Amino acid sequence: MTRSPGLPKAIATVCLSGTLVEKLDTAAAIGFDGVEIFEADLLAFDGSPAEVRQMADGLGLSIPLFQPFRDFEAMPEPQRRRNLDRAERKFDVMQALGTDLILVCSNVQPSALDDDARAAADLAEMAERAARRGLRVGFEALAWGRHVNRWSHAWKIVQAANHPALGLIVDSFHTLSLDDDFAGIAALPAEKLFFVQLADAPRLSMDVLAWSRHFRNFPGQGALDVPGFLRAVLACGYRGPLSLEIFNDDFRAGPARMTARDGLRSLIAVEAEAGGPALPPPPPLHGFEFLEFAVDEASGEALAGFLEKLGFHEAGTHRSKAVRLYRHGDVNLVLNAEQDSAAAEYFHLHGPSVCAMALRVDDAGQAIARAKALLCPEWQERTGSGERHIPAVRAPDGTLIYLVQPDPSGRSIWQDDFNLLQEAAQDVGTMRVDHVAQALPSGRMDSFVLFYRTVFGLQPEQLWELPDPHGLIRSRAMRNAEGTVRLPLNISESRETVTGRFVSAYAGAGVHHIAVASDDVRRTAAALREAGAPMLQIPANYYDDLAARWGLEDAALTELQDLDLLYDRDETGEFRHAYTTSFADRFFFEFVERRGYEGYGAANASVRMAAQAQRLAAASA
Ligand code: MG
Ligand code: MG
User: Residue 122 C-alpha to ligand 2 middle, in angstroms?
Assistant: First the structure.
């Protein structure tokens, strides 16, 4: 495993699921340099600290920190004396573990004295005892510490103690969760900053302790200014490890390898953002070149028939593979039934489904270089002679993301690899992919947000909670600044919602709808109706409510209702959209028209989901 450039990277064992042995194996396999040993993990391990040391050595992992040592400083006697004895026992463990640094977090006990001089004297005494064994002590301000809860206060105490074996530990969560000023960290003497822990978190208004224990996440997954914090750390000249200390219920339940890879990816990305070793920049994206469906012969026929009802036509066949191209305006859909391909593998796992999407970029090589630096290896698909090689990476759910750049010859991938059919001139106005929505298994939102944010520079939009008749859906779209690539991510906590049923039927994450933008969706909807397209019927009550909500004219309302169009509005514009029924209960299409509107019709999602749930219930009755 090649190590990442920049500062050494570590992860606290508490971040990962599994036994201590599994945690160490995973951290090493993913490429971390070291692990913080959390005492609880050591207590649950049925071997000695020396055996942990041996395992870490065998894996090439350092142990830069042992933690936590709680409720130490400024206690009245006799607790003070007992605490020093307790420290000696931890020093024994540290020596067996082969780590020289212990984290002391600020005291939370009601009986702790509000006395900085006593705190400094106690820490100096502990540091003196540590120094006799060649060990060191780092002091960290917990955001909920009884008397010490800010890094600057902990630093004052460390300065007053004035012992070479005592230093400061900072943790981005404890500082950023209090909106504390971190600029002063840049002026710390680097040799007194013993260790740096990084964690992000979503903005939540709740007790800071509960927030920290359950909702921390990796840098780039939350809303805190971790890059700014790290910039201050790097500015002071700190050269020690960057370590992840994340308490998160989903991470502790999720697959350890995925969590660890996300963790290392987040550290590499945030270090670059904070002025560390640079990464190739995120690629500008110019929309979707195509979406690819994995099918077999039978489902391919059925899907082709479904698409034709939606106005798509067959535009070509692959020169050497069982692959067909369907088109509607600028929307290219590829139906891949080739055996022994990535698509075939995907089909065996998930059935007929979107197995790949292709994004238009200026420089695919640069995009791949960034993805590789962020631990996404390039995917190599078999190509025939004379066929265009299209580089790709895998998204966290296994979907392939192809990167299509303009060829110097001016020829398109379709001209290179397909026998194109003569297309009849069609007047359909603009048709292009507006957004591709994915359903994710519960607990995976953070992982996808991090992937799209770091690898492709997409930004997360506001989180929506959408009421399905059988449970709540949480939805967050990732998009580029231009709005040419938009990927709403939907998670259901319940298996009974339409989204939850999709995830179960599908055995994982996957695309559950594709929205096509039209510049005149009323015309598109009328043409679809005319052609007998399978459109989702919207209950009449919806239109009564719409009239009350937006004060639409009767004629406008009647037109919407006749075409089963939904309507929404925001500060910047209007939105009209219509849904198809789903293909084999798997995915569906949406036709949308944005007039300056930036959302996804969240206000209408409950109506859509209720209509779909009704169809599902009717079908299974
Ligand atoms: Mg910490
Ligand atoms: Mg949509």
Answer: 60
- Whether 279 maps to a domain, the answer reads no
- List, edge to edge, every strand of the sheet that includes 459-468: 459-468, 471-479, 486-492, 431-440, 510-518, 588-595, 573-579, 566-570
Answer yes or no: do 405 and 259 share one domain.
Answer: no
- Ligand nearest the Cα atom of residue 213: 1
Mean pLDDT, rounded, for 52-74 = 97
295 and 260 together in one domain: no
> In angstroms, what is the span from residue 128 Cα to ligand 2's centroid?
63
First-to-last C-alpha distance (Å) of the chain: 54
Q: Which tokens hold the place of 444?
A: 């995976």
Number of domains in the chain: 3
CATH of the domain at 567: 3.10.180.10
State the Cα–Cα distance between residues 339 and 307, nearest whole angstrom: 22
**291 found inside a domain:** yes
Asked, for residue 78, whether it belongs to a domain, the answer is: yes
Give every CB contact of residue 483 below 8 A, 6+ residues apart in sequence.
598
Question: Among 289, 249, 219, which Cα is nearest to 453's?
Answer: 219
pLDDT > 90? residue 386: no
* Residue at 4 is within a domain: no
For residues 306 and 296, what is the distance between their CA atoms, to the nearest angstrom? 15
Provide the strand spans (E) within 114-229. 136-140, 166-171, 193-198
Cα–Cα distances in angstroms (integers) from residue 308 to residues 238, 328, 529, 533, in the given order: 61, 9, 13, 9
Query: 238 C-alpha vs ligand 1 centroid, how far in Å?
Result: 17
- Domain residues for the domain of 293 are 285-420
Question: Residues 602-615: pLDDT tens digits?
Answer: 899 889 988 888 88
Give 488 Cα–ligand 2 centroid separation in angstroms: 8
Strands 573-579 and 392-394: unpaired
What pLDDT digit, counting tens, does each position of 505-563 carry? 767 778 999 999 999 999 999 999 999 999 999 999 999 889 888 988 899 999 999 99
Q: What is the rounded distance in angstroms from the CA atom of residue 607 to the CA atom of residue 148? A: 51
Give me the residue label for tokens 């891949």: 336
Whether the pLDDT of residue 2 is over 60: the answer is no
Residues whose Cβ atom is located within 5 A of ion ligand 1: 171, 197, 245
Percent of the chain with pLDDT over 70: 98
CATH number of the domain to which 264 belongs: 3.20.20.150
Distance of alpha carbon 136 from alpha carbon 100, whole angstroms: 6
